[in-house]
Amino acid sequence: MCGIVGIYCKSAAMEAQLGSMLAAMLLQMTERGADSAGVAVYRNAAAARTKITLQSRHAAVDWAAIQRIIQSDLDATATLTQVANHAVVCVAESVGQDAQVASWVAAHLDGVNITSLGRSIEIYKEKGLPQDIIQRFKLNQMHGSHALGHTRMATESAVTTEHSHPFSTGLDLCLVHNGSLSNHNRLREQLRAEGIRFQTDNDSEVAAGYLTWRLSQGATLTEAMQAALVDLDGFYTFAIGTRDGFAVLRDPIACKPAILAETEEWVAMASEYRAIAQLPNSHQAKIWEPQPATIYNWERNAA
Amino acid sequence: MTSRPQQPKQTKQTKQTAPTEFDLRDAPVRELNRALHALTGSRLSHSACATVRVVNPGGKHNIAVGADVDADIAIDGHVGYYCAAMNQHANIVVRGNAGPGLAENMMSGKVMVQGDASQYCGATAHGGLLVIHGNAAARCGISMKGVDIVVGGDIGHMSAFMAQSGRLVVCGDAGDALGDSIYEARIYVRGKVRSHGADCVEKPMQAEHRQELTQLLQQAELGVGELNLDDFRRYGSARELYHFKTDNAGSY
Q1: Cβ contacts of residue B44 below 8 Å, gap of 6+?
Q2: Residue that finishes a domain, picked among A63, A93, A119
Q3: B18-223 belongs to which homologous superfamily?
């Protein structure tokens, strides 16, 4: 069992409340997953810049030194903002979108992982209760256009920060999963042969890697999700964060719960209504359950 | 089991009197359920039956689970998992939507939801009446064992899977694999059935079935006016999978 939440602001006026709405929803999902929690927040997009969110496995880390290495080796204009044991590095697009950036981080920054890459995405995740994660990353204060969150109750693999959701699936893309995949080992090997990198033996990371691979082959996100319905075997409710919104997909059996809700001000997705009940004017929301094997997609700029 | 007249607050029999209102923004669900369970077994006349109102349910789980008392319980808002599960005798109204496992294993009484119900509502229920004014999601009435379920809207896939007895009335459409491996439950559907499950077939509507359907619709009080019985079709078991037959090995 795991908990998923997603919130997206339909107007700029709501964006100041994004973090507090996300935190309130995540807290309600504590009982669905007390092992670890994580969020993807979309905010502060800068033209021609890419954000690299880094996470340190070591408690003591010299972020100032890391900033100096990045500035000398990667991009002299790089900036670094520390957020607890994570940091957001902002570099020129030509550097951040270079396929070599992940290998460079792995080779030069000891004990540091990339949690996300993109123009506006930032991923923060950690072992522990949602309450701890909310406080550590000061979620309540975060502004932004949209966000996803996940609380994990591990069933398939170890409880570590690397095994926590969201999993990055490409530039400004990430995935959170409630369920379990049964063909992830074979699929991981196939995807590795195609050049997709994996950090863990986690099943959900394979779903993320699968979408990354499909997108790299030229598929649209919708096409990639349609293909996932065929190639992924198991139980899932996925929420997939995109640059402009989020998408939701349930497997054809649809055992894993999902609720969608919409008002004039926001669109939300959650494993359970009690998360949505925390949102302003939720009593006026249109509420429904997503159908099995059906793709739901919200994008701010879509008609 | 039609709705009972509103009663003034009880004055005597303090042990059997539940507080009239629970605000679940403040009170834990356990407090509500303990108060309901404290009334267990009391068979009050309608004039003395407890009236309980629950406000701000906020999608919480296990609201009014295990009630075993003549009581009117009204819940103002959306409820989470397992609301009204194992209900006996109580008349429970949800003025909102219900999460998964609504009225699971209900034994008797009536549960009515004004909105939609999530998956496996009425699962394994032995008796009573479950009414959903909106839609019910997947696995509605799975393994039902005697409950009557009336749904004003549509039902999802794998509904009435292994349904053993009782009646399921659907005023809208039914999803895939309706009545898969069904035993002796009877299903009436007014709209389209997307596909039948194994061993579930359409059966002729005879006078006794029209009478049964009329009665169930009356009891349900959906408030949608008179429905034309000619629009309903009946589904049940072909009884081919009851006992192991080697010819059917592929269907088990």
Answers
A1: B13, B16, B50, B69, B70
A2: A119
A3: Glutamate synthase, alpha subunit, C-terminal domain (2.160.20.60)
Domain count, chain A: 2
Same domain? For A56 and A113 the reply is yes
A19–chain B nearest CA distance, Å: 21
Q: B87 — contact with chain A (CB < 8 Å)? A: no
A4-55: per-residue pLDDT in tens? 999 999 989 999 999 999 999 999 999 999 999 999 999 999 889 999 999 9
pLDDT tens profile B139-149: 999 999 999 99
Full domain range(s) for residue A86: 46-119
- Domain boundary assignment for chain B: 18-223
pLDDT at B41 over 80: no
> Which of A96-110, A166-180, B2-16, B122-136 is the least confident region?
B2-16
The span from the CA of B83 to the CA of B101, in Å, is 7
What whole-number percentage of chain B has pLDDT above 90? 79
Across the range A263-270, mean pLDDT stands at: 96
| Nearest chain A alpha carbon to B159 | A253
Instruction: Tell if the CB–CB gap between A272 and B80 is shorter than 8 Å.
Output: yes
- Same domain? A51 vs A172: no
Residues A212, A247 within the same domain: yes
pLDDT value of residue B5: 43
Between B59, B116, B119, which is nearest A277 by CB? B59
A159 and A55 inside one domain: no
Residue B195 near residue B177, CB atoms below 8 Å: yes
Rounded-to-integer distance, Cα A21 and Cα A144, Å: 11
Closest Cα to residue B54, out of B18, B88, B87, B86? B18
CB of A219 less than 8 A from some CB of B: no
- Tell me, yes or no, whether A155 and A291 share the same domain: yes
Instruction: Provide, as residue numbers in chain A, all residues whose Cβ is less than 8 Å from the Cβ of B78.
Output: 273, 277, 287
We report the CATH number of the domain holding residue A101 as: 3.30.70
The pair of three-digit structure tokens given for residue A134, joined into one six-digit string: 């909310």
What is the ipTM for the molecules in this complex? 0.91
pLDDT tens-digit readout, A55-69: 998 888 999 999 999
Q: How far is A99 from chain B (nearest CA, A)?
A: 43
A37 and A91 share a domain?
no
Mean pLDDT of B103-108: 98
